[in-house]
TrEMBL record:
Residues 51-134 form the DUF4179 domain. This is DUF4179 domain-containing protein. InterPro entries: DUF4179 (IPR025436). The chain crosses the membrane at residues 50-71. Gene3D superfamilies: bacillus anthracis domain. The keyword Membrane applies. Keywords: Membrane, Transmembrane, Transmembrane helix.
Length: 500
């Protein structure tokens, strides 16, 4: 028995809706066969076995007023197979690790319709560290509804309707599901880290991906509930709080359920023992550092005291955050946690790291010391390939490539050196030859800045998109950024932790 209870018995009671209707099976087969190949040069790998229910796709967006479970009372293993979400020309931040997902996933074909909105989960990819969901949301006239909301003129529409549908949806309506396993709920660190992981399939349908970090350890098999949103409000009777779900601003119930078996991923998992590391005068309460097929995750208990509305948030008894340390693997390579990351759930902070190379068997945590004399200051670097943004005296980014047109700047930045606090929150401003911004205040009002980390390479992709009628960036020849205080590495107090 675990805190999840007797999982097999629980799942038998939860996951037995009866046989999947033949009409659903037929539509699934037809829809999957009709999917376009995104990369015809690389044929999709065959499945290791035939699933009882194939992958749901676009054709299933017709009204089906029932929840379709992946199989009758079955635990779905993570096996090799194609994922329809990636079979499109749309670009997302997860493309670089598509092969990873397609090596370990299950086609679940779950969907539920309520209040005129259909919520679907087509595939899941799960291991010790991540719960990844790939699915769709469908409603008649969905794109038109988003456009109407974005131009409502009620003071809530961002940028007076100039924001494209993509960003309006990302900020306002994109489903960010959470997952419940027993009493645990994963995905409460709802941030915009999935803001680019969706695309419009047609005027009625949006396809989404959700990547959720797991802050503890999952059992080998378990029942999983998927909720499209997770919110609370005061109960109607004034006693306590009640939970509710919304999609497209409408309340309803879109809870989906399935059984999962992640045994096939266990052999490739390496973990550090949970421990409190003493690093000089400070302590790091490392609850988890795990490398698995789907990536790497660290969880740190920062021992916060106080909270929002309770005065300052501080850390007690000398405990500190992971951001005060650089992490080096046994091959001598610096490891980088991703933007966005470091989100806090309770007292725990969750970090996703770029997965280290195979064969890494230990990690070294090196305290980063900050100079008291060299303070943060603005710096300029040329806008050219190979230019260095020296964030500290030991670390920063190299401009691998850039795209510049009248309304968009996209930078691909390769990190180097130990990751210092503040590197992840880098802010960049394109400037002219005289160092002045390449846009004015009015134009800046219609700018959206975003950045994400490539899950495979660790490179940071930094974008600035302007939605203004006039060309803007043609004068940009430099990049302004913040150079942090000088740092030093306290190797004498570094601690090496085995991965096994």
């Amino acid at each position: 028995m675990t805190r999840y209870g007797n999982e097999k018995e629980k799942m038998r009671s939860l996951l037995d809706p009866g046989p999947v209707p033949e009409i659903v099976e037929m539509r699934l087969r037809e829809a999957y066969a009709a999917l376009p190949e995104r990369r015809p040069a690389r044929p999709a790998r065959p499945r290791l076995r035939v699933l009882r229910t194939a992958l749901a796709a676009a054709a299933l967006c017709v009204a089906l007023p029932v929840t379709v479970l992946a199989a009758t009372g079955e635990l779905l293993p993570m096996i090799e197979g194609a994922i329809a979400f990636f079979r499109t020309d749309a670009a997302t931040t997860l493309d670089s690790i598509q092969n990873t997902f397609e090596a370990y996933n299950a086609a679940v074909a779950l969907e539920k319709t309520d209040a005129g909105v259909t919520f679907t989960v087509d595939n899941i990819s799960v291991d010790d560290n991540f719960i990844n969901l790939f699915g769709r949301m469908q409603a008649t006239g969905l794109r038109a509804k988003l456009q109407e909301a974005n131009t409502a003129g009620d003071g809530n529409a961002m940028f007076d309707g100039q924001m494209p549908d993509r960003w309006a949806f990302a900020y306002n309506d994109m489903p960010r599901p959470v997952v419940r396993v027993g009493d645990a709920v994963y995905g409460l660190d709802n941030s915009l880290n999935d803001s680019l992981n969706f695309y419009f399939q047609d005027d009625d349908t949006v396809c989404y991906a959700r990547r959720i970090l797991v802050n503890d350890t999952l059992p080998d098999s378990f029942a999983m509930q998927i909720l499209p949103s997770y919110a609370t409000r005061p109960a109607a009777d004034g006693a306590g709080a009640e939970k509710y779900q919304t999609l497209l601003g409408t309340e309803g119930d879109w809870t989906l359920e399935c059984g999962v078996d992640i045994t096939s991923t266990r052999g490739a998992v390496k973990n550090a023992e949970p421990q409190v590391l003493t690093l000089g005068e400070s302590k790091l309460d490392l609850k988890k550092f795990s490398v698995s097929p789907l990536g790497a995750v660290a969880v740190v208990d920062e021992h916060f005291t106080g909270g929002i509305g309770e005065g300052d948030v501080v850390q007690k008894d000398g405990y500190t955050s992971l951001e005060q340390y650089a992490v080096r693997d046994s091959a001598g390579n610096w490891m980088y946690w991703m933007r966005p990351s470091g989100w806090t759930v309770g007292e725990e902070s969750l970090y996703e790291f770029v997965k280290p190379a195979d064969g890494v068997d230990s990690l070294t945590f090196v305290p980063v010391l900050y100079s008291g004399t060299a303070q943060a200051q603005e710096a300029l670097a040329p806008l050219e390939q190979g230019a260095k943004l020296e964030v500290t005296n030991l670390s920063g980014y190299t401009v691998e490539s850039f795209v510049l047109d009248g309304r968009r700047l996209e930078l691909t930045l390769a990190p180097y050196g130990p990751q210092a606090y503040g590197m992840v929150g880098l802010e960049i401003e394109p400037c002219g030859a005289d160092g002045s911004p390449a846009y004015d205040e009015e134009q800046a009002r219609t700018c959206i800045v975003d950045s994400y980390t490539d899950h495979a390479t660790g490179n940071v992709v930094y974008t600035m998109d302007f939605y203004h009628d006039e060309p803007l960036l043609s004068s940009a020849v430099q990049l302004r950024y913040t150079k942090l205080a000088d740092i030093a590495l306290d190797e004498a107090n570094a601690v090496t932790v085995p991965l096994a």
